[in-house]
Amino acid sequence: MSGIEVRSLSAGYRGREVLSGISTTVDTGGWLGIIGPNGAGKSTLLKAIAGLVRHTGGVLVDGRPLEALRRRERARAIGYAPQIPQLPIGLTVTDYVLLGRTPHLGLLARESAADLDVVAWVLEKLDLTGLANRSLSTLSGGERQRAVLARALAQRAGVLLLDEPTTGLDIGHAQALLDLVDELRRELGTTVVSTLHDLTLAGQYAERLLLLDRGEVVAEGTPSEALTPELLATHYAARTSILHSPDGTPVIAPVR
C-alpha cells in the first residue's frame, strides 16, 4: 500500500488560483480529513492529488511522483470518488461496480471469481445487494452515491480519495460507509484522504484533520486540535460548543 506526500501544491482554474502552497503528508494506512468552509478549495485539492487538475508543486505516491506513474499504475494506486459523478447510461449496479476491478485485469481478460467476490463483498457492506441488478438510472440520489463509492472501494487502490462521501446518505448508511473505509484502512493499509462537511463525522473517523480556508492551510492536527470553538468561529463564522463522545472524539454542537 502507499502513502501520500503533497509538496507546495498550488492549483486553480482558468487563471484563478484556488490553492496556494499546500503541503501535507499522509502515512500508509492513515486517514486525513480535509475540512473547511464552502469554497475553501477542498475538492480542488483532492482532484490535484488524483492528477485531474493542472497544478504546480509535487504529489508523491509511495515516494514516486504522480507524473511518473503510467495510467494503469495510477489507477491501481489511487481510487477517486467525486462528489458529483458522471454515471454511464444502461449499466446495472453490479456492472458499474465491476469497473472498479478494471485496473487489475490483464489485456482482454475477464473478471475472475476473486473479482466477483470483491464486488459482492462491497455491495453487501454498502447495503446494495438488493439493488445489484437495478439500472443506475433507476436509483435514488443516495443509492447512486453508494454505488459510486462501491466502485471506488472495489478498486482496492492503495490510496482512496473520497469527496464528500456521505452526501445524500442517511446517518445509518453514512456510518456504514465510513466504518467500511476504516476497516479497509486498518486491515489492508489503505491510505484515505476525504473531504467531509459533517465535522463530527470528520473528527470521529479521520486521524488528522487539515483545515483549509481561502485555499490555504490554516490548521492541521488531531481532531481535538483542529476542531476548536475559536477556529470554527474564525473560519466558519460559527458558534459552537465542543462535546465528546464516549471514545473521546469531538462532537460539534451548534449554539443558538
Automatic annotation (TrEMBL):
Q: Which UniProt keywords apply?
A: ATP-binding, Nucleotide-binding, Translocase, Transport
* Record domain ABC transporter: where: 4-239
Q: Which PROSITE patterns match?
A: ABC_TRANSPORTER_1 (PS00211), ABC_TRANSPORTER_2 (PS50893)
UniProt xrefs under Gene3D superfamilies: P-loop containing nucleotide triphosphate hydrolases
* Cited SUPFAM superfamilies: P-loop containing nucleoside triphosphate hydrolases (SSF52540)
Q: Which InterPro entries match?
A: AAA+_ATPase, ABC_transporter-like_ATP-bd, ABC_transporter-like_CS, P-loop_NTPase
Entry GO MF terms:
ATP binding
Protein name as catalogued: ABC transporter ATP-binding protein
